[in-house]
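Minutes, project check-in
Item: structure for the 83-residue chain
Input as provided by the requester:
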Amino acid sequence: SNDENKANMINCTAEVKARGAKVIAIGKENNELFDEFIYAPDGKLADAISNVIPFQLLSYFFAIELGNKPDRPRNLAKSVTVK
């Protein structure tokens, strides 16, 4: 989303790219940091909802394809970023 958190999200994206991650982004505008980009229309105040639903579906189908159980993830770890 193009809001007050955009700069932080771009910084986080650069951090995970530096660690070798592949980045799939969903939003209104592409960025050179994204390996894959899925366009989502402008949802105005509902941007958070319109952007997170495709990620939930991707995660679900990736888990199924990999033979994992989406409702019972194993080795679930907490990830914390400190500013």
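Outcome recorded: The two ends are 20 Å apart (CA to CA).
No further action items on this chain.
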